[in-house]
Design brief:
Layout (H helix, E strand, L loop, with lengths): L7 E4 L10 E7 L2 E5 L7 H10 L7 E5 L5 H4 L2 H6 L3 E5 L3 H5 L2 H11 L3 H5 L10 E4 L4 E4 L2 E7 L8 E5 L2 E3 L27 H7 L1
Bound molecules: zinc ion.
């Protein structure tokens, strides 16, 4: 590895809960790379976390979305508003340009809690959206990320490899410390979860 990356975990304190949702921040010479934006409801916390690291929103040049679920991609349109380029799986791209259907679908589940939980989900302008296919490489400064199509949790899921580091989004499973659980669990949201594809992507 030519340059070992500095990776900062930004806990987004979702619903005042630690270790629930986070973004990864990777500083590079010309700015900041963010892996997943988090939801619209944690925008203020994201901005605060950046300030705590003496950085600001306008320094984010690239946002690599693992997938378009609200907890991972909801703030992407807002970040585009401050100048970031947003990267997303080709199957998720139409919903980033026009999130109407995505929001309507989620509202069927979350109903009147929709705004409290997830906040705004703004569209990304077409010229600020880079559409990814399996195997695409993204060069940012001296870093090169490899995008890997990893369905199973959702059919619009990318994992990103940076040398031997994998940003696995929701396909790698998660451990919910606040519930006292020690084992990894695979999040299984409707309607696209597909256990055989999950195993293959793992
Ligand atoms: Zn998800």
């Amino acid at each position: 590895m030519a340059h070992s990356p500095e990776i900062v975990i930004l806990d987004l304190n979702f619903q005042n809960c630690k270790n629930a949702i986070a973004s990864y921040l990777i500083p590079y010479k010309e700015g900041l790379i963010l892996i997943d934006s988090g939801p619209g409801s944690t925008q203020e916390q994201l901005e605060k976390n950046l300030l705590d690291h003496d950085r600001d929103l306008g320094e984010i040049t690239h946002v690599l979305l693992t997938h378009i679920h609200l907890d991972h991609a909801g703030a992407a349109g807002w970040l585009a508003g401050s100048g970031a380029q947003i990267f997303v799986h080709e199957r998720g791209a139409p919903h980033m340009l026009d999130p109407t259907k995505l929001i309507a679908s989620a509202a069927r589940i979350y109903q009147d809690q929709m705004n409290v939980l997830w906040g705004d989900f703004l569209p990304v302008p077409e010229n600020q959206l880079t559409v990814l296919s399996d195997g695409d490489e993204i060069s940012i400064g001296h870093y090169t990320f490899l995008a890997l199509d990893t369905p199973g949790h959702a059919n619009h899921h990318m994992a990103y490899l940076l040398d031997d580091i994998c940003f696995s989004g929701d396909i790698g499973g998660g451990r919910i410390n606040t519930m006292g659980l020690r084992s990894l669990r695979i999040p299984i949201p409707p309607p696209e979860v597909h256990p055989p594809k999950c195993r293959k992507s793992n």
